[in-house]
Amino acid sequence: MEKVIRMRMPDRDEKSSRSQSGQTGKPCDFIFCGNGDEIGIGENTGPMHKDHYKKSVTDFVDVIKVARSQHINFQTKCIEKCGCNPLPSDIENALKSILIPFFQVIGMKIRFYILIQINGDLYGMWEWSSQDLPKKDDDIITAVFLCKKFLIHRNLHNRTARINQTAIRNSQIFRENVENTKVVRHVKKSIKLSHITTPKAKRGSSKK
């Protein structure tokens, strides 16, 4: 499994065409990928001014929608691999344990969140931390705390990628087991038909 989480910073062209491509959701400033799947996002809203208040709210809603779309994309892949909908309970529970990490930068503060699937189409959100950005070159303590928060954020991405791969693999195994069971049942039926007792066999058994 790919252990390195890649972060892309889309340029203007990529952001404008992203919604029309095979990616998930609307354009955003930071896209985190692992094993070929999007597993998190980030948004830099900009300075905290009066004119930017509405933008910070709309950006936050948009980021939540993208995080939700990323989780739904995991479900879709599991359904395709599994071949059944609804999914088996163990795979559904695995998907519920997948957290989508995301963050938003507003002014000189960054807020970290995770999106959680509660049940079906119902999702919840938790702000697990916030941190001021360093303002001066000698603001070492703030920089250290910020690095620590991003290390936790990276670990959440690694966890998401790992559980997602396991869920997809288990979905494929479930499908193969179902197909193998169908083959075994067909073979058993054929064997039963080939062992029909003939009249000659009946006469032989009656002499005994």
Automatic annotation (TrEMBL):
Tell me the domain of life: Eukaryota
The segments labelled Disordered in the record are: 1-27
Bias (Basic and acidic residues) occurs at 1-17
Question: How is this protein named in the record?
Answer: Uncharacterized protein
Say which species the protein is native to: Glomus cerebriforme
